[in-house]
Design brief:
Largest sheet: 5 strands, antiparallel
Structural class: alpha+beta
Radius of gyration: 30 Å
Number of helices: 39
Number of strands: 20
Distance between the termini: 28 Å
Shape: globular
Strand content: 5-15%
Strand order of the largest sheet: 1-2-3-6-5
Length: 959
């Protein structure tokens, strides 16, 4: 075992996510990548940090940083930060011994980590490791935000942190897509940094880039004019901003009438700016060469790129994936000519890296657009890079992948043997790295297919790759498609990289999923839908040692991307229609059910399980019987997709990727649509949202060639929505927001569903709200409603007895006494308590109580059976963090400590208290549920607490 393997194993045992992060950040993976440990004068101290009990060493190392001006390598700072978060109680004691407070130290170390990563990212760009640079910038963003939001940084440090956050966003935005929220935050932080005195030309130039980036997301031309105005108001950035200005002017020209005077004028100025530009790095030089080529294309009237796709190089690359054309390919070839000139004349590695990116996208694109020279260029460029960057194992791997791709396209088996030699050498040098084994298996697959030889060697190669991946200390399990036994191994070929997925399953399920992937890919290709959709490729199904029936591993390859379940509400809404279109394609080709197949049988078991979580057994059976009576059994059946949002990805080019297609059951048409919409609340539960739901259903039905009458459609959607509300209301992983959505969905069905559905929805709403429910028309509480709700909670939880409201040991008070104390009619109290958006009250027989949050000595019987949560969190503020780390979580003015099972909801609670902090709870399973998404405990001792960075996915995760 190599030293790298030993460190990887130690990190994986202690902090699996950190071990995986160290690999993507290029701090692990080769002998040269751990010089931060082996070549440091503090190597023995650093070595002790890679240990769960290293908190004392972490405090001592930090003391040396502060008192002795020791410069720690970035991984050392990351390890100290990890100890701070994982062992806050122990770290508090160790820091106190050297006179340091916990919370300020945590914020300071987080800032130092971000700053070190930021500088490391710039060094990676200078060293031409663009992928590593992007990875480091992305982690830096999360740590900058964590430290900034603490409000514990000094003004001088905050000035730097906010400025560098904005810079990192601008840098990342050139290469990958970012969410609108991140770009807006970067502009806000940029403003803060400038207000604190940061007027450096670099900061102002990156603000210019951010304005252009925001235009790419919104299409608002005022942002481009604002960028030029920003430039005119800051003449000190004239030198150095030419590239950013030329990008802005080129976009304005593309928005103008083609060949118009305005268009020609803006293009002319852009060309002149690029001519005068003096690049500060070889990366800037390569980007300048690309933009100059595209400006020339535009001046010749040949540029077929929209204004919003001009980000260099992200825009053209995404366009190549989604809108391939002969014109675009010819323009890209002229871009590559310019880059190859830089590579030849200047030995420019960034030029070669960018050439490889464009060539890879061409090779992966439509075969009819490809020319033989494109393949030879791809092999030659990646081979040149592998010689220039022999220390970079991922560059070596891509050289092998390029040779294999060219071999498959041309039939030249010499190239396949060249690829195999590369992968064999990598496997020998990196025995624990799964990727070379994958490469070897893919080469053998191809060679066996060409010669029709024995496939046993191929199966053995895939088995070796699967065994290595499943036991890897480098790649951790990914929760994809709602599963946690999936290993996603990134090939690290850049911002449009692919991922190899290893899924443990049964042989039958693996074979079924492989056939579904093949059928779906064939249909999308037949429809020319590759610009909108991406389907994983099934590579192999192999048997591995296992104690259960899941001894088969299905290996597939797909584009990297972001789970739809992790997108913002706006982003999720924007991709809803294309997902529905892909779902329709799947249901058209996934096969028909056997004669006599009943969808009710498979659904019944789930409905019984969910109902018995909510109701007493007899009541649960009656509810399921009522659902059976209304079941839309006359609808045609389609293959079950498991359509929830965690089963779809959006790749960097914006295409929809379907994952996890192993289900072999059948459901009525439309069921998967409702699961997609409701399980992640992608459409609001209000009358407008109801019409949107029906429109989406009609779009789907049209896509599968079916139609339903309006009454049938309304009844079907209502039934499906009821089942999803039942599931959300009882699912242990669903938090407060989704449980609220379940209640609001029931309220919507009471208002908009058919008569039969209304009765069931009213009963389910009553059970989910734990109150006597009547019709409700209002989906969002009014201002007066919220004010009265707070007043009711205040008296029922804290001050009722001091205001004439007697409260018994179970927390109940007379409705009339409460109404009198608040000077309102009791009907007003009932309206608040019965609202589907109110989980805090319960009404029984004319008496009312608050369900949680008491300082009064009352005992609330839970009555909620949602199962033990997987995780629990507590939201608080940075101002109380030192006390929490010392004493643990105690009720303070309340009787119990309140916890939630969703980190985002803990964050929202913390925001109400000041600068928010989120604590994760090491569960002892003595916590009790008291309302949806809320658990209580008498206290949580400090040794059971750890600290989260809730911004860890700040720049978007690619899986």
């Amino acid at each position: 075992m190599t030293q790298t393997d030993e460190i990887s194993s130690a990190l994986h045992a202690w902090a699996p996510d950190l071990g995986e992060s160290f690999t993507s950040l290029a701090y692990l993976g080769s002998a040269s990548s751990i010089r931060w440990l082996t070549d440091s004068p503090w190597s023995s101290g650093l070595g002790s940090l890679v240990d769960a009990d290293g908190h004392a060493s972490a405090a001592e190392m930090w003391r040396k940083v502060l008192k002795e001006n020791v410069t720690l390598p970035t991984p050392g700072l990351l390890l100290i930060l990890e100890h701070m978060r994982r062992n806050p109680a122990d770290m508090r004691s160790s820091l106190a011994a050297i006179g340091l407070g916990f919370s300020k130290t945590l914020a300071n170390i987080s800032y130092r980590v971000a700053d070190a990563l930021h500088e490391g990212a710039k060094d990676s760009f200078a060293s031409h490791e663009i992928d590593v640079a992007i990875a480091r910038f992305r982690v830096a963003l999360s740590e900058f935000r964590f430290s900034i939001e603490s409000q514990l940084l000094s003004d001088s440090t905050r000035r730097i942190a906010t400025g560098k956050y904005a810079t990192a966003v601008a840098m990342i935005g050139r290469w990958i897509n970012l969410s609108p929220e991140v770009v807006s935050r970067a502009l806000s932080y940029s403003r803060d940094s400038m207000a604190l005195g940061n007027q450096k030309p670099e900061t102002l130039i990156y603000r210019l880039e951010l304005l252009v980036l925001q235009f790419d997301q919104t299409g608002d031309p005022r942002l481009l004019r604002g960028a030029l105005k920003h430039l005119s108001e800051n003449q000190n950035i004239a030198d150095g901003s030419e590239l950013a200005e030329a990008e802005a002017r080129c976009r304005i020209a593309l928005l103008a009438e083609p060949s118009s005077r305005d268009a020609r004028r803006y293009l002319k100025v852009a060309r002149e700016k690029l001519t005068r530009f003096r690049p500060r790095s070889s990366v800037e030089e390569a980007r300048c060469r690309i933009l100059a080529a595209l400006v020339a294309e535009a001046e010749e009237g040949r540029l077929a790129i929209p204004a919003q796709s001009m980000a260099i190089p992200r825009g053209p690359l995404a366009l190549m994936a989604t809108e391939p054309s002969t014109e675009l390919w010819e323009a890209v070839r002229r871009v590559i000519n310019g880059l190859e000139d830089l590579q030849t004349s200047r030995g420019s590695v960034p030029a070669a890296v960018l050439s490889a990116r464009f060539l890879r996208q061409m090779v992966d694109g439509p075969a009819e657009l490809l020319q033989p020279d494109d393949l030879s260029r791809y092999v030659g460029t990646t081979g040149w890079l592998s010689e220039k960057a022999s220390y970079n194992r991922h560059v070596q791997w891509e050289a092998g992948a390029a040779a294999l791709s060219a071999s498959k396209r041309t039939g030249n088996q010499d190239l396949a043997h060249q690829a195999q030699a590369i992968f064999d050498a990598l496997a020998a040098a990196h025995p624990s790295w799964p990727l070379p084994r994958i490469g070897i298996a893919r080469v053998r697959d191809y060679l066996v297919g060409q010669s029709a030889g024995d496939a046993s060697s191929t199966a053995n190669s895939w088995r070796d790759a699967a065994t290595l991946a499943l036991n890897s200390a480098v790649y951790a399990r990914s929760n994809l498609g709602g599963r946690n036994e999936v290993f996603a191994v990134a090939d690290a070929r850049g911002f449009l990289s692919e991922t190899f997925v290893f899924k443990r399953t049964t042989q039958a399920k693996a074979e079924h999923e492989a056939s579904m992937l093949s059928a779906l890919r064939h249909e999308i290709t037949r429809q020319d839908g590759s610009n909108r959709f991406e389907v994983p490729r099934s590579l192999a199904i192999v048997e591995v040692p296992s104690d259960d029936e899941r001894r088969w591993v299905h290996v597939s390859q797909r584009a990297a991307g972001r789970l739809v379940s992790e997108l913002s509400a706006e982003e999720g809404s924007n991709v809803l229609e294309p997902i529905i279109d892909l779902l329709a394609v799947f249901h058209r080709v996934a096969g028909t059910p056997p004669a006599g197949k009943s969808a009710w049988r498979s659904l019944k078991d789930y409905l019984k399980m969910w109902s018995r979580t909510l109701f007493e057994p007899e009541q649960a059976d009656r509810f399921v019987d009522s659902l059976r009576t209304l079941f839309p059994g006359a609808l045609p059946l389609v293959r079950k997709r498991d359509g929830h949002a965690s089963n779809w990805l959006v790749d960097p080019a914006g295409r929809i990727v379907a994952i996890d297609l192993e289900s072999s059951d059948f459901v009525p048409i439309g069921y998967d649509v409702v699961q997609l919409i409701e399980d992640n609340a992608l459409v609001q539960a209000n009358p407008e949202g109801w019409h949107k739901r029906l429109a989406i259903m009609r779009r789907y039905l049209n896509g599968i060639g079916q139609s339903l009458s309006d009454p049938t459609l309304i009844a079907a959607y209502g039934w499906f929505a009821l089942t999803r509300a039942l599931r959300l209301g009882t699912e242990r992983e669903a938090g407060k927001n989704l449980r609220r959505h379940a209640r609001e969905l029931c309220g919507l069905l009471v208002e908009c569903g058919d008569d039969a559905t209304k009765d069931l929805a009213r009963g389910l709403l009553q059970a989910l709200s734990r109150i006597e429910q009547t019709d409700t028309k209002e989906a969002v509480p009014s201002h007066d409603h919220r004010r009265l709700s707070k007043a009711m909670a205040f008296l029922l939880r804290h001050q009722g007895p001091n205001n004439g409201v007697l409260i018994d040991k179970a927390g109940f008070a007379s409705m009339d006494d409460l109404a009198l104390a608040l000077k309102v009619d009791s009907s007003h109290l009932l309206a608040v308590a019965e609202h589907p958006g109110e989980p805090r009250f319960e009404v029984r027989d004319g008496r009312i109580r608050a369900l949680y949050g008491h300082s009064l000595d009352v005992v609330i019987d839970a009555g909620i059976k949602v199962g033990a949560p997987i995780s629990l969190y507590h939201g608080s503020s940075w101002s109380t963090l030192d006390a929490i780390v010392q004493d643990g979580l105690i009720p303070m003015q309340r009787r119990m400590v309140h916890l939630t099972n969703v980190a985002e909801e803990a964050m929202a609670v913390g925001e109400r208290k000041g600068a928010p902090i989120v604590l994760a709870i090491d569960q002892s399973h003595d916590e009790e549920p008291v309302a949806e998404g809320i658990w209580v405990a008498a206290c949580v001792p400090p040794h059971r607490l750890s600290i989260m960075n809730p911004f860890i996915e700040e720049a978007g995760v690619v899986r």
